[in-house]
Amino acid sequence: MNATNSQSPFGSSPSRTEVAQGSRQARTERVGGTARNDWTRAEIAALFDLPFNDLMFEAQSIHRANFPRNEVQLSTLLSIKTGGCPEDCGYCNQSASAESGLKAEKLMSVQAVMQAAAQAKDAGSSRFCMGAAWRNPKERDMPAIVQMVQGVRQMGMETCMTLGMLSEGQAKVLADAGLDYYNHNIDTSPEHYEKVITTRTFDDRLETLENVRNSGINVCSGGIVGMGETREDRVGFLHALAVLPTHPQSVPINALVPVKGTVLGNMLADTPLAKIDEIEFVRTVAVARIVMPESMVRLSAGRESMSDACQALCFMAGANSIFTGDKLLTTANAGDNADAALFAKLGVVPMQAEVKVEMEAVAAE
Ligand code: SAM
Ligand code: DTB
Ligand code: SF4
């Protein structure tokens, strides 16, 4: 089974046999063993300050030492429960306090989720990420959630869920169901955090990450750039991730998608200059790659309005995962045809799930 099939616009990716035949050494220049979690803010700030070419060289060197050079992992998102969220995240159109006009919906049926997952697999995705606009899952929702995880796994895709805060017990239930990844972002620096969200604290987020980590599920945690934060906040954001007891296995870097009716969307509409500079965005990706050398770095929301050149720089800076498809959770995404064209231009191919697992296993040795 390939990561792609005949229906995928991404064309051919290395087959399982090719992957098995090409030794890991041929695909990377060195393997793992370089992660540290004693980074200081001053060290991270110094990386941000490097001349751009030096920063890119360092990030690309670390990237190719740890990962296949020209492979990008594909994940597909599905909003399994949209809108009406009691949290007040200033960037989010799913918050009940946003005036974005988004209609609140109930949790999707397991069957409808399976249909969407089958389509994602056909389009070449190796991971299916299911997101719910909840503060936290209720106990009554857990049986359906467990069935969704089991069903998607049976299709041969990796599973990821993002359902808000998770208790120790709920993390265990999801781990037992076979969940591969749980996404819970710290979003920004501890200092900037309270300017964006008031209904749950930065420490609440760290507690959920601890529950997930202790359950054995892989942690996916990152944040958003372009929310009016300072360079110092971007340093503090990456520092908070880099000093976790274990680096998140996956680090999504989102560029704010400004949605009218949200606090931050309105703010950006009033002050267009506040939009993040693309070079500063690429620097953030590069520093993430350097300080978390063995983590997958995902170029997440915001690609739809990003030039091919900016995305190419992000891949050069060490991003090696994207969300595919026309839609993220509720907002537009670049789309498979645009992505396939970009991959062809760059000579990039979809990463196979088993390659990534193999790399992670070696890094952990
Ligand atoms: N409700 C759950 C939670 O917040 O934990 C899961 C879904 S939530 C939409 C997942 C993440 O998507 C957020 O933590 C945030 O980092 C990102 N996100 C949400 N809206 C965004 C936007 N407009 N632009 C960029 N990233 C966004
Ligand atoms: C993440 O860091 N980005 C994704 C995923 N994790 C769940 C979500 C992006 C959402 C962008 C806004 C939307 O489409 O609703
Ligand atoms: Fe709710 Fe998640 Fe949106 Fe925050 S980011 S308002 S928790 S859906």
**Radius of gyration over all CA atoms, rounded:** 19 Å
Bound molecules: S-adenosylmethionine, 6-(5-methyl-2-OXO-imidazolidin-4-yl)-hexanoic acid, iron/sulfur cluster
Shape type: globular
Structural class comes to alpha/beta
- What is the rounded distance between the termini? 27 Å
Mean of residue pLDDT values: 88
Pathway: Cofactor biosynthesis; biotin biosynthesis; biotin from 7,8-diaminononanoate: step 2/2
Pfam families: BATS, Radical_SAM
Protein name: Biotin synthase
Keywords: 2Fe-2S, 4Fe-4S, Biotin biosynthesis, Iron, Iron-sulfur, Metal-binding, S-adenosyl-L-methionine, Transferase
Would you write up a description of this structure?
The chain is an alpha/beta fold and 365 residues long. 43% of the residues lie in helices and 13% in strands. It is built from 15 helices and 10 strands. Strands 1, 2, 3, 4, 5, 6, 7, 8, 9 and 10 form a 10-stranded parallel β-sheet that branches. Helix 10 links the parallel strand 6 (223-225) and strand 7. Helix 3 (41-49) crosses helix 10, helix 6 runs parallel beside helix 7 and helix 10 packs parallel to helix 12. The relative contact order is 0.18. 6-(5-methyl-2-OXO-imidazolidin-4-yl)-hexanoic acid binds at residues 77, 129, 131, 162, 183, 185, 222, 252, 254, 257, 300-301, 328-331. Residues 70-294 form the Radical SAM core domain. This is Biotin synthase. [4Fe-4S] cluster binds at residues 85, 89, 92. Its EC number is 2.8.1.6. Catalyzes the conversion of dethiobiotin (DTB) to biotin by the insertion of a sulfur atom into dethiobiotin via a radical-based mechanism.
